[in-house]
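Write out this protein's structure.
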Amino acid sequence: MAARIESLVFSHASVVPSVSLTPVGVSGSIGFGGLNILPAKLSLRNRRGRSGSRVLCEAQQTAVEVPAVTDSTWQSLVLESDLPVLVEFWAPWCSPCSMLHPVIDNIAKQYAGKLKCYKVSTDESPSIASQYGIRSVPTVLIFKKGDKKDVVIGAVPESALAISIEKFV
């Protein structure tokens, strides 16, 4: 289900910024990476008396929220899991971490039912990070039956994570 997030009015088509996005097939609208851009048949007049067009943007619910793990939930969610677990160690101030978040979101969607994905803020749970020797972020650990099986350090492409994951699912 989509939700209307913004309505923009342009007096001339020339003021609409050009974008280079790949459309996602959605009937009746053009979708760009989670947004539907709907042409509206409304004619509006601005303060100068010129008519304009309205563009409606709708956000699709395509994002996966990877849950956070804390000191209190680490044992039950990660170590006692029946499925393999991918844990991303990150920090709010880390730019490469923000680049890796969408990759982890895609992994969580792609491996749903075969792999659990979580994230740990090293600022909020430093004891978990130090217990596993996390010295830089982002770092991804893969656990199976409570044992650390693999480590991937840095903002790596999805294909690099998939190679590591495939060994354990």
